[in-house]
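Intended use. Records like the one below are meant for learning the mapping from a protein sequence to its folded structure. Do not use them to infer anything beyond what is encoded.
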Amino acid sequence: MNMERKIYTVYLLTTPNRSVLYCGVTNNLERRLAEHRSNRSIFSAKYGVHHLVWCQEFSSPIYAIAMEKRIKKMPRKVKEALVSSMNPYWIFLGEE
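Structure written out for the chain above:
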């Protein structure tokens, strides 16, 4: 029996000029980011939202989805503060 624990990640993406924020949840962040960057997401294709600026991991999909819903209801200023609390310079994470 496979006892590997799944990790669920809530993430925020932005555009190069930070004009748009996108919140999502996934059980495979690397795969999901590749999908956004290849424009397989309609939203990403339309707005150019490809740059990871914030993420938080959860061991439960229920908690991850609840956090995603909470973030989506937040005003933009609160989302910006959330990103800045972890990533004050809004560095595009995972892009070497």
